[in-house]
Model the fold of this input.
Amino acid sequence: MSFLSKIKVGAGAIALCGLMAGNAQAVDLQFFFPVAVGGKAADTIAELTNEYAAANPDVNIDAVYAGSYQDTITKTLTAVRGGTPPQLSVILAVDMFTLIEEDAIIAFDDVAATDEDKALLKAFYPAFMENSQTGGKTYGIPYQRSTPVLYWNKDAFKEAGLDPNTPPKNWEEMVAFSKKLTKRDANGNVTQWGLRIPSSGFPYWLFQGLTTQNDVILANNDGNETNFDDPKVVEALQFMVDLSTKHKVMQPGIVEWGTTPKAFFEGQAAMMWTSTGNLTNVRDNAPFPFGVGMLPANKRYGAPTGGGNFYIFKDSTDEQKKASFDFIKWITAPEQAARWTIATGYVAPRPDAWETKLMKDYVADFPPALIARDQLEYAVAELSTYQNQRITSILNDALEAAITGKKDPAEALKEAQKKADRILKSYR
Done:
């Protein structure tokens, strides 16, 4: 059964609940949802949505799996421009400025009527609220949120004479460990790389780990200015390039995002950077003991946040907005947030979720789940600007040019900054 059909089964059950209630005034909601990491996410969303429907038969939710994050924003904007938007959706937090510019969404402050409602807007980790709020208002409620973390193969560490329970703490150690972990056959061909940092798809995200560690921010909080050509950004990109060309501990060229966990499982790389959203996948499929740690520091520890927020759409009735907010309050509540985290590996986005018995039992059995939460202390907002897809595409192109050797990092980033300035100057 496909993800889409699984979600539709849930929607059918919800509609049936509404019919059984016989309530002619039932509120109909369409809910677009992306699933980026596997079947458990789709199953869990269907399960939670059905559970809400059973307790609220006056609300019918048509929960539609809309594909990847990119598919979801594309379908949502098409629906908005066609006058048929969903009432609520989970969309990337970095798309907030795009949705505001399209006049597609409302601020949650506009529907937070009670003290309990208003308290919800303060219930989430500040790091996740950095790209959920702007202009003093809250436009997104954190849900499917993540940070990148370091995974390592403990068996490979033992074989290389490294402590299997101690990951590299900084860039210098990451290079030194990677050199010990990189294995070559008699002909000099690499059979195991020390490190794998993906650079395909959305390379700016993991690159932002390096820039944050180098103590520089890629964009301002207003989403209208970037710092791509800052010397600290150039230094971070040079380090990323050097991992392959100078230190020879990471495969040259573009490293694929989607195949990285599989490469890790198959021993092609001893360490990898990827999303904590892959945590359950790694736990289920790694054929060796593995560790999870914060990304190594340079001038400081640091990582970007990532993932999706809930949004409520402007072209909805007052009743639909109220029902959407009620559903969002319920599904992001501590108990449901804990269930979502355990099923997927995404970070429970509010502190009180970690105080539930369910979550305490989970982390007692699986302490690596705490790493991404603890890293939030050092996290910054994911790169987010007006015209965000164009801006991130410009940076991604610059990263690719440097990684593939077509341009040196300083030249690539200087050109990227000029292009970004041309687009963003009208928003200042």
